[in-house]
Design goal:
With 152 residues, the chain is of the alpha/beta class. The chain has one domain: Nucleotidyltransferase, domain 5 (2-Layer Sandwich), CATH 3.30.420. The chain contains four helices and five strands, in the order E-E-E-H-E-H-H-E-H.
């Protein structure tokens, strides 16, 4: 069986100045049918890097129509492995890890699970800080968002 063609690429990154600390996230949505990229950004005054990585993907997915085929490109193994491998087991165990501890960031994971059920997702890891143009752009935008909280 062949994989459906990706309709939208979602490139994402999160940043945190300190962990925890002020954080930012960014994602780029690129329609494969042509058209302009959509860039989304945001941040929080006190958060963690993992929360920002998750939020970047979540906020991008929330904008897409049901049934969209999405290729997620991220440098976060935590996000990609969580979505592709861990989440189903967490759900079976009542959102507990294999060590029977509560899943961290469960609010975001549950929201991502909701998005995962209405979209077709594929996952590709990209090496961070290695010159991948979309990852570098997301990293820069996420850092800018985090830095805005230093100025307040």
């Amino acid at each position: 069986m062949t994989k459906p063609l990706i309709q939208v690429e979602l490139h994402s990154d999160g940043a945190c100045l300190g962990n925890p600390g002020p954080g930012g996230w960014a994602c780029i949505l690129r329609p494969m049918s042509g058209g302009d990229d959509v860039v989304l950004t945001g941040g929080e005054p006190a958060t963690t890097n993992n929360r920002m990585e998750l939020t970047a993907v979540l906020e991008g997915l929330k904008t897409l129509e049901d049934g969209t085929v999405v290729g997620i490109f991220a440098d976060s193994q935590y996000v990609l492995t969580g979505l592709s491998e861990w989440m189903d087991n967490w759900k079976r165990r009542g959102w507990k890890t294999s060590a029977r501890k509560p899943v961290k960031n469960v609010d975001l994971w549950k929201a991502l699970d909701g998005e995962r059920t209405r979209l077709e997702l594929s996952y590709e890891w990209v090496e961070g800080h290695a010159g991948h143009p979309d990852n570098e752009r997301c990293d820069q935008l996420a850092r800018q968002q985090a830095e805005m909280y230093l100025e307040t």
